[in-house]
Amino acid sequence: MTTSPRRYHITTFGCQMNKADSERMAGILEEMGFAGTEDPNSADLILYNTCTIRDNAEQKVYSYLGRQAKRKHEQPDLMLVVAGCVAQQEGEALLRRVPEIDLVMGPQHANRLQELLEQVLAGSQVVATEPIQIIEDITKPRRDSAVTAWVNVIYGCNERCTYCVVPNVRGVEQSRSPAAIRAEIEVLGQQGYKEITLLGQNIDAYGRDLPGSTPEGRHQHTLTDLLYYIHDVPGIERIRFATSHPRYFTERLIRACAELPKVCELFHIPFQSGDNEILKAMARGYTQEKYRRIIDTIRHYMPDAAISADAIVGFPGETEAQFEKTLQLVEDISFDHLNTAAYSPRPNTPAALWENQLSEEVKSDRLQRLNHLVSVKAGERSQRYLNRIEEVLVEGSNPKDPNQVMGRTRGNRLTFFPGNIAELQGQAIKVKIVEVRPFSLTGIRE
Ligand code: SAH
Ligand code: SF4
Ligand code: F3S
Questions:
Q1: What is the arrangement of strands in the sheet containing 266-268, beginning at the earlier edge strand?
Q2: For residue 152, which ligand has an atom nearest its CA?
Q3: Ligand 2 centroid – CA 81 distance (Å)
Q4: Do residues 209 and 173 make contact, with C-beta atoms less than 8 angstroms apart?
Q5: Fold identical between 143-264 and 298-384?
Q6: Phi, psi values for residue 429, rounded to 5°
Q7: Rg (Cα) of the chain, in Å, rounded?
Q8: Cα of 333 from ligand 1 centre, angstroms
Q9: SS3 for 446?
Q10: Ligand 1 pocket, 245 CB below 6 A?
Q11: How many whole angstroms separate alpha carbon 31 and alpha carbon 308?
Q12: Using CA positions, which residue lies closest to atom 7 of ligand 3?
């Protein structure tokens, strides 16, 4: 057996769930006596926490892995770990493709990192991808921020959107108990965290798998109930949550957000397409009219709420006219932010097998046109902040200007203003906005 390695490096691809999982895995490694390093080439253990939502995300992982696999020939005790969604999707096939890998572990196994590494140190190559009951967070995450923290509330996804790998790689929905969630948030409050983001791929599904969640008693275990239940945790000033599914989004939730002062007026509700036929082919289970009604209801209760979403262009069979309905929706709703992507066929998903795939040219042309509209609209949305006083929770210094600090408004706009980070970190400061850009703002202290 080799002596215990000293330094670890983690590269995280993909979404907030992966970021949260990486923080927990970093916590485990530090408990085991490893120290973190930004430089993979000086590490004794390299962990790639991978994403497979689109083909380009998956390919990136292979190119990173290839480089480190070579290095392993010079440094045989280098440990190579592939975690996350590519690991889950590929399983053992990853070992055949890159035999230098020591450990392949799916997202459900993140909290088991220590035990799995012990098997590696004992001399085996390990693949951990079987579905399991996610064990309660006993780990202490090594969080990247000292101000804002992720809190998982539900793992997995039971939807079956026809383009999406997430249910395959993240498994079925598993909600954490309200008590465990509250306990984690209480510790965060004591540690000085000011903002939390509750996480779930389909956060509106929260609670439906919990014991006691009978049809009659269901309201005890919804996301709305959870917001009321955690709202008074001392120290926490802001509460966010993501991602919402239009099918399950309720007026009761909207009212709770309007009523609860710590819950930020920010809604991330992917719509994917503005065309009903495409939505049906995607198996999203709502119409664009329903989506518009949700946004209207949000704006009825909170006229200034920030709205963001995800959209896919070039889904199989999408006509130019159907794509234009997506443009129309973006035009009409005026999102503060929109994540856009060209459709990418994914392994073991229904839509990947359909014959009506569009060419890369059509997809990238539509993506460019949509992105152009998105930044025009975001620019317009930013205008409303000009000369306004906004509350900015200071997270760090501006990497481009050490005399400025940066943070976010309640609506999640990145904001810079002159100030000293040592004095201001973690404080919610009133800032007058003097300059606006599509996705960021500059202000001065009031
Ligand atoms: N659970 C969330 C988002 C999950 S994945 C939801 O239901 O909306 C994040 C985003 O990636 C999706 O919203 C979708 O816009 C995009 N996406 C997922 N699969 C994709 C694919 N095969 N090709 C392109 N984009 C995809
Ligand atoms: Fe994927 Fe749909 Fe689940 Fe979102 S709701 S993670 S898009 S299957
Ligand atoms: Fe990617 Fe897995 Fe998240 S596929 S988007 S890292 S759930």
A1: 266-268, 306-313, 337-342
A2: 3
A3: 26
A4: yes
A5: yes
A6: -115, 140
A7: 22
A8: 20
A9: coil
A10: yes
A11: 37
A12: 166
Q: Where are the domains of the chain?
A: 7-128, 143-264, 298-384, 386-445
Q: Relative to the CA of 49, which ligand 3 atom is closest?
A: 6
DSSP state of 263: B
- The response to whether residue 272 sits with its C-beta less than 6 Å from ligand 1 reads yes
| CATH tag, 386-445 | 2.40.50.140
Best of 18, 161, 199, 344 to mutate for ligand 2, by most ligand atoms within 8 A of CB?
161
Please, are residues 9 and 36 in contact by the beta-carbon 8 Å criterion?
yes
85 lines ligand 3 (CB under 6 A): yes
Q: What is the residue-level pLDDT of the chain in tens, covering all 446 positions?
A: 455 558 999 999 999 999 999 999 999 999 999 999 999 999 999 999 999 999 999 999 999 999 999 999 999 999 999 999 999 999 999 999 999 999 999 999 999 999 999 999 999 999 999 999 987 777 789 999 999 999 999 999 999 999 999 999 999 999 999 999 999 999 999 999 999 999 999 999 999 999 875 555 444 789 999 999 999 999 999 999 999 999 989 999 999 999 999 999 999 999 999 999 999 999 999 999 999 999 999 999 999 999 999 999 999 999 999 999 999 999 999 999 999 999 999 999 999 999 999 999 999 999 999 999 999 999 999 999 999 999 999 999 999 999 999 999 999 999 999 999 999 999 999 999 999 999 999 999 98
Extract the tokens encoding 256: 């709770």
Does the pTM of the predicted model rise above 0.85? yes
Q: Which atom of ligand 1 is nearest to the CA of 245?
A: 7
- The per-residue DSSP string of 163-210 comes to T--HHHHH-S-EEPPHHHHHHHHHHHHHTT--EEEEE-TTGGGTTTTS
* Structure token pair of residue 36: 């973190």
Query: Domain 143-264 belongs to what topology?
Result: Transcription Regulator spoIIAA (3.30.750)
Q: Which atom of ligand 2 is nearest to the CA of 272?
A: 7
First to last CA, the chain: 61
Structure tokens at 218: 């269901």
The closest of 223, 404, 163, 413 to 304, measured between CA atoms, is 413
* CATH label, 7-128, candidates 3.90.180.10, 3.40.50.12160, 3.40.50.300, 3.40.50.2300: 3.40.50.12160
Give the max Cα distance, the chain. 64
From residue 56, alpha-carbon distances to 8, 51, 86, 98 in Å are 25, 10, 12, 18
Q: What DSSP designation does 144 have?
A: S
- In CATH, the number for domain 298-384 is 3.30.750.200
Q: Which two tokens stand for residue 438?
A: 């599509």
| 445 within 8 A of 416, measured Cβ to Cβ | no
